[in-house]
What does this fold into?
Amino acid sequence: MRIRTFALIALLALPTASSAQRIRLPRGGRGATPQPAPLPPEAGPVSRALAYKRSRWSAEGYTLITSLQLPSVGGGVTRYTTPGAGTRADYRYTEHWSATVDLTASLPGTPTTAETAEVGTRFSPLPWDRDLRPFFDVRVAYVHAYDAFSTQTAASIVAGAPGQFVEGTRYSRGMGSVGGLGVEYSLTPSFALTTEFSALRSRMTTYRSAGPAIIPSGSNFWMTSFRYTLGLKFNPVRALHATQKPAS
It folds into this structure.
């Protein structure tokens, strides 16, 4: 009787023990590949390896539309609008400030032409990595001007016969100051489009006059110029390599 009892207990316990020792395999089969761990953040020098380093020097060529206002010989103010061209050299000595040198000239063949040599500074409130950067210009200028004029003859003034005029030319030079406001837009890492409105106020002295109507040498007058420019700026850039030290 005891033998039958022990045999019955053993038969009942055998399925329970075998199910407890069973090892379950992970789902997906043996060929499942675990997901890789995320990569650590890239080091600073490596992330800047492809950055661009700008040269401190840049050059710009621009077209120029000038509106000149100067006193006429017979009184009043004479206004002229002349096209021209200019070139600029720029040296950036801080992130926001640069020194500039400009040379401008009106196109020949017009009644009034002016050439200038200008030295000054430019301030850009935004950093160089921005695509759109406004700027402010302040410069001093040496101005050389030529203008053709007409004045009424003395005989016609005495006789009271207006309309009789004689032609003359005047060559003048002087110093002045320039103030301007513009914006620069980057087209590529090396090229940028620039546009600016500026005003030039100069004190001129006549040193030579030709024609029937002669202006005495040493005659002084104020000349005002309003200018609009549209130009293309070139700044050499190069890509930094990973072995190079990043610089501003």
